[in-house]
Amino acid sequence: MSLQLPELPYAYDALAPAISSDTLHLHHGKHHKAYVEKANLLLAGTEFATLSLEDIVVRTATKRSSKTMAALFNNAAQAFNHGFYWRSMKPGGSTPSGQFASRIDKDFRGVDRFLTQFTEAATQVFGSGWTWLVLDRGKLRITSTANADTPLTRGHVPLLTCDVWEHAYYLDHQNRRPEYVQAFVNSLANWDFAAANLERAELKLAAE
Ligand code: MN
Predict the structure, then answer these.
(1) Residue among 62, 87, 83 nearest 73 (CA)
(2) pLDDT number for residue 1
(3) How many CB atoms sit inside 10 A of residue 75's CB?
(4) What is the pLDDT of residues 17-42, one digit of tens each?
(5) Which domains does the chain show, CATH number per domain?
(6) Spatial contact of 173 and 180, defined as CB atoms under 8 Å apart
(7) pTM value?
(8) CA 57–ligand 1 middle distance (angstroms)
(9) Interior/surface letters 77-114, b for 16+ CB within 10 angstroms, e for the rest
(10) Do residues 93 and 188 lie in contact, with contact meaning Cβ atoms separated by under 8 Å?
């Protein structure tokens, strides 16, 4: 059993003009595909080969003093992060609503304040990385991770992510990352996906 490249949950041109079809073809069809293929090469014949992608990420994270394990972690984590990123967006985006909006309101003192903080965090990541909304010990938090790093290794539950590697926006926005992040927050972010992830995580915690 090997890792698979998931299909995009929308057409390649569905996120334009914020993210063009050219960017999605490269980002999904080349970058994400390469992470999956490299992870599969490194997984072959190892004790991790039968694990879920999430488990591969968590289990290899602590073994990164080995070069091969670091490479497996980086490629598996990027495979996970990208699959999660595609689902974090939808054509036209959404606004937090219902119970999820109340929860945002409680943990960030206002939905607008939350959206501003998320935008600032994503804009401020130095170099390549990711900005996330996560569930951390029962509380919603905004965090950023560098390179391939992912909240999975910190015991946080990822709820939504924005990829701020240059390959995510350079064709469409060149060096103007704030413009891409604004477009992500205003017209792409799928807060219904985040709300569903939160609900699932809390049901799981309640059952433990
Ligand atoms: Mn990327």
Answers:
(1) 62
(2) 66
(3) 25
(4) 999 999 999 999 999 999 999 999 99
(5) 21-87 (1.10.287.990), 98-207 (3.55.40.20)
(6) yes
(7) 0.97
(8) 17
(9) bbbbbbbbbbbbbbeebbebeeebeebbeeebeebeeb
(10) yes
* C-alpha of residue 1 to centroid of ligand 1, in Å: 24
CA of 168 to the centre of ligand 1 (A): 5
Which residue in 11, 87, 199 sits closest to 207, CA to CA?
Answer: 199
Residue 96 CA to ligand 1 center (angstroms) comes to 24
Respond yes or no on whether the N-terminal peptide bond of residue 96 is cis (omega within 30° of 0).
no
Q: What is the distance in A from the centroid of ligand 1 to the CA of 7? A: 15
Torsion sign (Cα): 90, 91, 97, 103: positive
Question: Tens of pLDDT along 166-198?
Answer: 999 999 999 999 999 999 999 999 999 999 999
In the numeric block, which tokens belong to residue 55?
A: 């488990």
Separation of CA 43 and ligand 1 centre (Å): 21
CA of 200 to the centre of ligand 1 (A): 26
Structure tokens, 35: 């992470």
Query: Which structure tokens are listed for 71?
Result: 């490479």
Residues 6+ apart with CB under 8 A from 206: none
Residue 98 Cα to ligand 1 midpoint, Å, equals: 31
Is a pLDDT exceeding 80 seen at residue 52?
A: yes
pLDDT at 60: 97
pLDDT at position 205: 87
User: Ligand 1 centre and the CA of 167: distance in Å?
Assistant: 6
